[in-house]
Amino acid sequence: MYKQWSKFVAKWESDPARYMFDTVKIKDGYIKNLNHYFKHTKVMTDKAVNEKPVRAIVESDKGNKYVFVGYVDTEYTDEDGNLVLVDYKTSSKSSFSKAKLPEKSMQLRLYAMAEHQVHGIPYDKIKARFDMAKYCTVHFKQENGKWKTSVQERYQWVEKMRKKLETKLKKTDLDPITIEEMIDTACANNDMDNLPEDIREQFYIENYFIEIDINEDDIKELNKHIGNKCDEIVALEDIEDLEGYLSYTYPYDPDNYYDKKLCAYHTSDYFKKRENLVDDLPPEENLDEDTAWLFGGEMDKQQDDETDEIMNMLFG
């Protein structure tokens, strides 16, 4: 899997039209994290199904039904007979906080609804999780002998264990200089292969998952929410100037990550042409009274002054 990922990165880096990260630091961290993920994640060749198509039917309060078709990133049955639905994420875990999780998990819960509707699988036998590829769960043994976990970015997980390594290695017969050199090497390689076996045995890593609770009550609420939202979307088709309505109600925000990076419309040639038309308009000083107010020119300022004067007369 790592070889395939490496080929993909090489192809991406050679593409002049490739997606560009905001900074080199973000790009390097992203690639290093995924390099580590693909090196250390085991591939389930016998049990897993990737990109499995599923179909769910939702119904609104008005009785309107809508069909959704999606693709589960990975689906498999675990040793306890549970159907496990996995969605892979490379974004930061801060976007999946407890407060944001209900919205973020709608897609996975919709997949669970689909499997229940089509195959009759009870909700208590369906598990759903986000596989957060950017992170790993570090298990480490405390001084009291108990194990504890810490979630860290993959590309620097050993560095984050530096102090714990120092504490453990100081209890050995190694001299301080050797200890420092060993830890520096481990951090540089982002593994503990050079450390004594009894130290290595006190650390191990696993994929970091965010588990999603699947239950019938939440699924019913989801069904209602999506169905009613579909009714609202369909109702928009009755608006005569739909494009104008959407442009006014949902204006393009260049500071919004979705608008800037993900929204297909705002990255389309059609949108860019519209933006160019606005840029090509004549300077505001050449506009007449009927159009100047649209662009915040002197006419606009004059109207504001007149409005202020009237308001002062009326309300003192």
TrEMBL record:
Which Gene3D superfamilies did the record assign? 3.90.320.10
Q: Which Pfam families match?
A: PDDEXK_1 (PF12705)
Which top-level group of life is the source organism from?
Answer: Bacteria
One Gene Ontology term of the biological-process aspect is:
DNA repair
Q: Where is the PD-(D/E)XK endonuclease-like domain?
A: 55-173
List UniProt keywords, sorted A-Z: ATP-binding, DNA damage, DNA repair, DNA-binding, Helicase, Hydrolase, Nucleotide-binding
Q: Which InterPro entries would you find in this protein's record?
A: PDDEXK-like_dom_sf, PDDEXK_AddAB-type
Q: Which GO terms describe its molecular function?
A: ATP binding; DNA binding; helicase activity; hydrolase activity
Tell me what this protein is called: PD-(D/E)XK endonuclease-like domain-containing protein
Name its species. Ligilactobacillus salivarius
